[in-house]
């Protein structure tokens, strides 16, 4: 799913003064660090400050990922996970490390579809009986 229409609406509100910069330039320290170490720098300048190029950060979520769910991953790590994991969701966030602008860029699903007749991991656990 592409979130570019929502992005345009937010930026229009910022440029018209209906939304303050403090509302859209609120990247957490964790997100800016993830952009630095796990992000992919683009050629697109920040639409707010225009001082730095945006970075794209991928976050993964899925029941089969266990403790990895919610972590930032590089493109190379996503490629390896795609071949080795059951289905999981990827959310890509664009981040400006200079001013803190951040916005959800896209979301998609990777990984292998579970085999027919195979129950998801969560459903396979046996219930404890007294």
From TrEMBL:
<protein>
    <recommendedName>
        <fullName>DUF5318 domain-containing protein</fullName>
    </recommendedName>
</protein>
<dbReference type="InterPro" id="IPR035169">
    <property type="entry name" value="DUF5318"/>
</dbReference>
<dbReference type="Pfam" id="PF17249">
    <property type="entry name" value="DUF5318"/>
</dbReference>
